[in-house]
Amino acid sequence: MNILTATHFSTAQISQLESLPDVHVIRQNDFQPKLAPTIDVIMAWSPLAAKILAGPNRVKFIQTSSAGIDYLPLAALDQQKVLVAHAGGIHGDAIAQSVLGYILDFARYITHPQNRDPQNFWQGRIQRRVLYSVVNKRVLIYGTGHVGQAVSQLLRQIGLQTIGVNHSGHPAPEFTETIALATSKAQPPVADFIVNTLPLTNATQHFFAADFFARQPQPPIFINVGRGPSVDTTALIAALKNGQLAGAALDVFEQELLPTDSPLWQAPNLLMTPHTTGTVDHVEDALFAIFYPNLQSFCQTGKLSVNQADLKLGY
Amino acid sequence: MNILTATHFSTAQISQLESLPDVHVIRQNDFQPKLAPTIDVIMAWSPLAAKILAGPNRVKFIQTSSAGIDYLPLAALDQQKVLVAHAGGIHGDAIAQSVLGYILDFARYITHPQNRDPQNFWQGRIQRRVLYSVVNKRVLIYGTGHVGQAVSQLLRQIGLQTIGVNHSGHPAPEFTETIALATSKAQPPVADFIVNTLPLTNATQHFFAADFFARQPQPPIFINVGRGPSVDTTALIAALKNGQLAGAALDVFEQELLPTDSPLWQAPNLLMTPHTTGTVDHVEDALFAIFYPNLQSFCQTGKLSVNQADLKLGY
After folding, report:
1. In a shared domain, residues A165 and A289
2. Segment A180-185 mean pLDDT
3. D-isomer specific 2-hydroxyacid dehydrogenase NAD-binding domain location, by residue (chains A, B) (predicted)?
């Protein structure tokens, strides 16, 4: 069984994978085109993986290194009966720390453009009353899965209040209050911050659009660490300009790589990071802890043991 | 007894002060020069307060709105037997939130200049391995008073490790480990972050200088939320340039207002805020909670009840 991997596993990790019966690991750097039809398992999606899947192949299991799987050719994979496992659960704590960083940046006036402008720097002091404590601030968290839970846990640890939003409003760990997606849109609760951690599906495509921003009872700060296309970028920019949003932090974008001429570059009160919040220390170890048991199970039974995605649901 | 105040107390708060026998409150906006010799108590230091003290006066009690009192004419006040109370204790939680914000900014790569540069934005993604989790990072906190304790408490709440530094290395609340100032200089412990919360005294003037930065066993990120003159700015800039420091965040400066031509504007890996971290929501309420009992006690006994400063020690 041939495993193609774009993940930088250590030599010891490769050895452990190859200690499974009949398993042979090919690092992406060692790949040659003639091997394409011989690949059984793909560890981490890449342009090369896409190319292999598009041609004659025998791929039967793909392990992603991301929590979301929206960027895979889901319909084709479903038709070809390829099993897909996501990496959900490993990014939560990292994303939560970034979300807290964004929140403190706004609350503590850390990254305000005046702070980088010698001529206006001390003017910020005059406006120091804009600073506030984050204790008891209300945060609406869209998505109550691994990432949403990790965000809620960290924020509550230091005294913020969280409300989770999911499809039906069902209870979820790390949340004392949850509401349904439809309710959140029809009767949005007062929130100081709104954090999106939802996967990208048909239901979440452009969920955060002009009507959503217009209905907020007070201007929140909007943080997107989920997927870019959940947000209507044009509407977001308008909401920042007309004051329906007090600010925004985006780690993901409708178009990635973000174009150099994107109008986002001119939007006010906007922090941007280049899809980096999910970065995990020693990510190879975290991925190995998911991939190894899955590969073991796949070799023995043809099934996966953890994190199997539903290709029809898209997560 | 005439009270001059620059603090924006509410009408209700002024009434409560004036319910004390013989107390009359004069808001700074209502001050007239002829009143100068009649002022007994000054609430919040200001250029006007300095002018009153410099002339014939009968001032006997000054309440500051800051934790530090280094900017007062301490020797003169001591000689004139003026009682001084500081506002220590009210800024700790706010400063702690700002410190956590700076730490997350660096750890989560939030404010990196690449994130504001359309041409290089997505390059940050290539370098995403520079992001790290703050859990278990080691933070050396200079000063184990109110502010140092608040910083330690907040950081430990989310999993960072703290070591307190004070004059003798005596134990302090919110710290599991403390070391002496001299030890920290002679045998500096490994630290990912160093936070200064020390008051400005003769002993702390330029404490953070070239020798201090040169002796660090690994390049830390240095955060100053104490007083500007505790740092040798020229040495700090050199340490940022030569890599002895991995980064720095400064809220206070040797010269305030920070000059527009300060070489700090050209220093790498430096975050600056305009002496704003101590900003407290509803600061008037917090100050009133210190000033009112002090004024009450002063009226009754001629003594203060809380936060009295030692003018010889300077804090």
Report:
1. no
2. 95
3. 101-276
- Mark whether A153 and A217 lie in a shared domain: yes
Residue B231 in domain: yes
Selecting from B100, B118, B128 the residue whose C-beta is nearest the C-beta of A260 gives: B118
List of chain A residues whose C-beta atoms are within 8 Å of the C-beta of residue B252:
none
Compute the distance between CA of residue B266 and CA of residue B272 in angstroms, rounded to an integer: 12
From chain B, pick out residues whose CB is under 8 angstroms from the CB of A128: 274, 276, 279
φ, ψ (nearest 5 deg) of residue A83: -80, 140
Residues B130 and B247 in one domain: yes
- Mean pLDDT throughout B260-269? 97
In a domain, A36, yes or no: yes
Nearest to A104 among B97, B260, B280 (CB): B97
Q: Count the neighbouring beta carbons within 10 Å of the beta carbon of residue B168.
A: 11
Average pLDDT value for residue range B59-77: 95
Torsion of CA B108, B111, B117, B118, to 10 degrees: 50
Please give the tally of structural domains in chain A.
2
A182 shares its domain with A284:
no
SS (H, E, C) chain B: CEEEECCCCCHHHHHHHHCCCCCEEEEHHHCCHHHHHHEEEEECCCHHHHHHHHCCCCCCEEECCCCCCCCCCHHHHHHCCCEEECCCCCCHHHHHHHHHHHHHHHHCCCCCHHHHCCCCCCHHHHCHHHCCCCCCCEEEEECCCHHHHHHHHHHHHCCCEEEEEECCCCCCCCCCCEEEHHHHHHCCCCCCEEEECCCCCCCCCCCECHHHHHCCCCCCEEEECCCHHHECHHHHHHHHHHCCCCEEEECCCCCCCCCCCCHHHHCCCEEECCCCCCCCCCHHHHHHHHHHHHHHHHHHHCCCCCCECCCCCCC
Residue A91 has pLDDT above 70, yes or no: yes
- The CA-CA-CA angle for residues B85, B90, B95, to 5°, reads 125
Closest residue in A to B92 (Cα–Cα) = A133
Task: State whether A262 and A284 are in the same domain.
Answer: no
A123 confidence band (pLDDT: 50, 70, 90): confident
- Are both A104 and A189 inside the same structural domain? yes
* Residue at A308 is within a domain: no
Q: Where are the alpha helices (DSSP H) in chain A?
A: 11-18, 47-54, 74-79, 92-107, 123-126, 146-157, 181-186, 210-214, 233-242, 283-301
Do A19 and A110 lie in one domain? The reply is no
| Best residue of B128, B252, B262 to probe chain A, by most A CBs closer than 10 Å | B128
Domain range for B76: 2-89+280-301
Rounded to the nearest 5 degrees, what angle is found at the Cα of B82, between the Cα atoms of B80 and B87? 150
Residue A217 and residue A197 in contact, taking contact as beta carbons nearer than 8 Å: no
